[in-house]
From TrEMBL:
Pathway: Purine metabolism; IMP biosynthesis via de novo pathway; 5-amino-1-(5-phospho-D-ribosyl)imidazole-4-carboxamide from 5-amino-1-(5-phospho-D-ribosyl)imidazole-4-carboxylate: step 2/2; Purine metabolism; AMP biosynthesis via de novo pathway; AMP from IMP: step 2/2. It comes from Haloarcula hispanica (strain ATCC 33960 / DSM 4426 / JCM 8911 / NBRC 102182 / NCIMB 2187 / VKM B-1755). Residues 15-319 form the Fumarate lyase N-terminal domain. Its EC number is 4.3.2.2. Pfam families: ASL_C (PF08328), Lyase_1 (PF00206). The keyword Hydrolase does not apply. The gene is purB. This is Adenylosuccinate lyase.
């Protein structure tokens, strides 16, 4: 059989988009999960040795050797673990059990002068190891890979907000011409929303929690062996030392409400970027934004002139896929039949895929933002061609001057009609207002009617 490479990958995440998903390999791969399981088992073994109640003793040199099993875990080690699980290795027959394979791997790598095989995985169920190992991967994947990408997008939006703070642009509500804004202010809105969403993701990642309470969450095996040990306090300390919150009351499984919170926070951030992708796509379509052409890139296979907004379209597709996966994951992992069923095991293996679609979506959105430039003249021409949008300002000023029917007057003069700025000026000439107010009205233009939008953009 020919060796499989990216072109033979079943999933585009490991094929077409492999260069984008590479940063997640240390956290989302099978090898990464093996390494994290070894870390949990080794640290648990060392923690047992630190209990006064156990006769186990591990000196500094032995601890260093044990920790090297996960600190220096490589492809060869992963291959050994896989062989232990699927076909057997050395004196061990195939386990057909991925966590048991980890136990045997540690036995094989244990220092020669340490007799502690019986203490590996002592009193634990596989889920004690798995739930901790998974969170040791999910937490840095979110904090060190996804969040920095989100922050980079937010920084770009802030820069765009400041650069184009005072570039006026026709707004559209319900798809119709509305009170003008500035391009910078609209980017500031997205920067603000994304900043808040990033905070929610960070808090969710920081709050990930783990359990270490045995087969039914009762510490039964631990208590049977050492009834005088305060096992809940031990578990709290152990899980905390791994950088996780402790989940004290569980069945065999961690309820995974913490993961659901993280998935929901990521969906929230993704929804903001989806909104951005759609809006920028429309701005490109309206020629409010131009795109810098990439040398040698083909926009259309038949229309040579085209520069398509493919980055935003790709981002939209990947973020939509990510959200679908995250929604499914959040719903699924928080349910278990009675104290445990195994259906969640295969589902949790797809967390990395959901994160990968997030990462591709973020990268593509950032690539797209780097290519767009406002067409200021197009925006100004559109504003000049839509003078009816100052009607809001006119009727508001007239209300201030005591015109109870101001709204109705402006509506009659503008709604459903093609209006010019001169039509407004003719209307102003017939009003019973002071010369100062008339001058105030005549000074109104679509281009200048942007309120404090520039200040809002500058303040982000």
């Amino acid at each position: 059989m020919t060796e499989r490479g990216p072109l033979a990958a079943v999933s585009p995440l490991d094929g077409r988009y492999a260069r984008y998903t590479e940063p997640l390999v240390p956290y989302a791969s099978e090898r990464a999960l093996m390494r994290a399981r070894v870390e949990v088992e080794v640290e648990y073994l060392i923690a047992l040795a630190d209990l006064d109640a156990t006769p186990l003793s591990i000196d500094d040199g032995q601890r260093a050797t044990l920790r090297a099993l996960y600190e220096e875990f490589d492809d060869e080690d992963a291959s050994v673990v896989k062989q232990l699980e699927t076909e057997g290795y050395g004196e061990y027959a195939a386990t057909n059990h991925d966590v048991k394979a980890i136990e045997y791997f540690i036995r094989l790598g244990m220092p020669d002068d340490l007799d502690a095989a019986n203490w590996i995985h002592f009193g634990l169920t596989s889920e004690d190891v798995n739930n901790l190992a998974q969170r040791l991967l999910v937490k840095p994947a979110a904090e060190e890979v996804l969040v920095p990408e989100l922050r980079e997008i937010r920084d770009t939006l802030v820069e765009m907000a400041h650069t184009y703070a005072d570039v006026p642009m026709l707004a559209r509500t319900h798809g119709q011409p509305a009170t003008p804004t500035t391009f910078g202010k609209e980017m500031a809105v997205y920067a603000s929303r994304l900043g808040q969403a990033i905070g929610r993701v960070e808090r969710a990642a920081e709050g990930l929690s783990g359990k270490l309470a045995g087969a039914s969450g009762t510490y039964a095996a631990h208590v049977a062996a050492y009834p005088d040990v305060d096992w809940p306090t031990f578990a709290d300390s152990f899980v905390g030392d791994l950088g996780l919150e402790h989940e004290p009351l569980t069945t065999q499984v961690n309820p995974c409400d913490d993961l659901a919170v993280l998935f929901d926070a990521l969906r929230g951030a993704n929804n903001i970027l989806l909104d951005l992708d759609l809006d920028v796509w429309l701005y490109v379509s309206d020629r409010y934004l131009g795109q810098e052409a990439v040398e040698g890139e083909t926009g259309s296979s038949t229309m040579p002139h085209k520069v398509n907004p493919i980055d935003f379209e790709n981002s939209e597709g990947n973020l939509s896929k990510a959200n679908s996966d995250l929604h499914f994951l959040g719903d699924y992992v928080t349910n278990s039949r009675l104290q445990r069923d195994l259906s969640d095991s295969t589902v949790k293996r797809n967390i990395g895929a959901a994160f990968a679609h997030c990462l591709i979506g973020y990268s593509k959105c950032q690539n797209g933002l780097a290519k767009v430039v406002p067409n200021e003249q197009v925006m100004r021409d559109d504003l000049a061609a839509t003078p009816e949008i100052i009607g809001e300002a006119v009727q508001t000023i007239l209300r201030r001057e005591g015109y109870a029917d101001a709204y109705e007057q402006v509506k009659k003069a503008t709604r459903g009609r093609e209006v010019t700025i001169e039509d407004f000026h003719d209307m102003f000439a017939d009003l019973d207002v002071s010369d100062e107010v008339r001058a105030e009205l005549e000074a109104l233009t679509p281009t200048d009617y942007t309120g404090i939008a520039a200040q809002q953009a500058d303040d982000i």
